[in-house]
Amino acid sequence: MSFAGEASSDVPTLPGTHSGIPAYLLEKARNAKGDVFDGRTKPIKDRQRLPVVPQGIERDDFLAALAELKVQIGNENVEINDKPLKDGWYMEHPNTHDMMTILDEEELVASAVVYPSSTEEVQDIVKWANKHRVPIFPISMGRNLGYGGAAPRVRGSVTVDLGKRMNKILDINPEDYTCLVEPGVSFYALYDAIQEKGYHHLWIDTPDLGGGSVIGNTVDRGVGYTPYGDHWACHSGLEVVLPTGEVIRTGMGALPGNNTWQSFPYGFGPYSDGIFSQSNYGIVTKMGMTLMPNPGGYESFMYTFPNEEDLAPLMEIIRPLRISMILENVAQLRHVTQSVAARGLPRSQFYSGTGPIPPDVIHAAAASAPVGDHTWAYYGMAYGPAHIRAHKLALVDAEFRKIAGARKVDPATLPADEYYFSRDRVAAGVPDIHELRWVNWAPNGAHIAFSPVSPIRGTDATRLFALGKRLHDAYGIDFFPAFCVGLREMHLIVEIVFDRDDAERKQAALDCLRDMIDEAAAMGYGEYRTHLVLMDQVAATYSWNDNALMKFNEKLKDALDPNGILAPGRCGIWPKRYRGRGWEMTRESGAASEGDGVGPAPEAKCDQGEFSGASHPYP
Ligand code: ADP
């Protein structure tokens, strides 16, 4: 099978490519790429549904508008999306569609991509979109894997790829432990820059994979695994281009001449940052992030527990330890099926039958691996100098050993490429690329997540586990649950791995997700984050008091974005022009993502140049 040279090209690297891999991970990335393309059979197909033009504008008018945009932003910085859709892989991901699509691959696609180089150009693009009533969709890196990747929610939107040309680290402050970044700065790039400067007293916090944008991950409320793992809570200060083209700075950034934008997030007045996360109210062009002080030492630990029923008593043990910060990071309690898949081998090497892989097969596979057989694996990290770590580790050990059969894994018995060491690096703020290995479980492996929030309690964990297991069994899907324990709550992350070239398995995955979301909501559990295709359904579960929250969100949307041009439908928030026309994706709408047209736009003031939105180059 040929992938038009895709499989044989080398992995792009930093700093030459903003989305590239750092040198210390290059070999690992090359191997990961080999594994991905070994399992790839999905052909690159000719496009069937061309040209792509967003609803609400005639084709000729749209092409004329794009020509105008080319004059403004530069011919080479506006690309029409009419070529075959290449899925690439993590390090060479597309910016036109979801490389892990669960729908028909031509459903959620962009009509064109534009690459701004500055906040001013982002303002120009926003004003252009208002003038021509073209939906635009901002991405920073476009790697939002499992949540829609780079795809826009409205087919035919013009993707604003901020990362390619706006990728500067504007400041790293080694005394205040803060930084200020543009959208195209990845966790890899931030880590590299800090190492290069020799600032070994500064730590970053990274998600499982380090290729995402610091801004993109934070505005979508992603998490990492040091004590600074709640990225949104750790950011300080935004610069935002509003949907009508003005630019604002939040918090202390609104005070001219301030020197506290990155150290005090609130400023004066309403705390407006919240409306720019998981929303479609603005385009973030700069963000401040706090950095963690090097704790002066760290030590990973891993315990395994033998039985599924250990889950409930374990949660009761974990809760007080986590709330009192004896367990200091967003730690993970992973199920053995995912531990086996994390070896990166295809499922077919273990089992050739259909339906969920039988437990005895999984346990036999686990028993033959270096960690040994288990049902649950807990990965944690103790921070600080040795005597402080020893105190915390002793408390954890005494508590965990109350579970019969609990076993502390000795890292000295593990080979260097064992998953444990990836968790060790990530919890020490060193970005890695190991995590995507379990996606190779299926040929043409893709993944999509169900991620409900619950209290850290045995009863809740057991209910959610039983719900997920029952529905996975019903749809013949292997069950990969991991409980990620925050401070006072936990996210259960259930990743469904599927073959993106198998329409029947995609449908099963989608049906299973829709059932899990509805049933979990009926029990009082809601998602912390979701895929584009599921956003309407998840938003509708937050319905208290006759959907009061969504009514408020719509009021904000209509006030801030009267023409409804910015990421319509993202997070279930539809602008007025789209409402009541069947744009919502639900179980009933099936795989169709589009509604029946858009309504007329109100005469927008920004058309008349009223919102000139003077911008202020940094600082
Ligand atoms: P990642 O950082 O994981 O590669 P993206 O860059 O795709 O992810 O960002 C995730 C999502 O967050 C996007 O789909 C988009 O909706 C939103 N987003 C990303 N960057 C911005 C931004 N600068 N301003 C507003 N929304 C953004």
TrEMBL record:
This is FAD-binding PCMH-type domain-containing protein. GO terms for molecular function: D-lactate dehydrogenase (cytochrome) activity; D-lactate dehydrogenase (NAD+) activity; FAD binding. PROSITE patterns: FAD_PCMH. It comes from Lasiosphaeris hirsuta. One of its GO terms (cellular component) is mitochondrion. Pfam families: FAD-oxidase_C (PF02913), FAD_binding_4 (PF01565). Residues 585-619 are annotated as: Disordered. One of its GO terms (biological process) is lactate catabolic process. Residues 106-294 form the FAD-binding PCMH-type domain. InterPro entries: Cytok_DH_C_sf, FAD-bd_oxidored_4_C, FAD-bd_PCMH, FAD-bd_PCMH-like_sf, FAD-bd_PCMH_sub1, FAD-bd_PCMH_sub2, FAD-linked_Oxase-like_C, Oxid_FAD_bind_N. The keyword tRNA-binding does not apply. It comes from the Eukaryota. The lineage of its organism: Eukaryota, Fungi, Dikarya, Ascomycota, Pezizomycotina. Its cofactor is FAD. PANTHER family: ARYL-ALCOHOL OXIDASE VANILLYL-ALCOHOL OXIDASE (AFU_ORTHOLOGUE AFUA_3G09500)-RELATED, D-LACTATE DEHYDROGENASE. The keyword Flavoprotein applies. Keywords: FAD, Flavoprotein, Oxidoreductase.
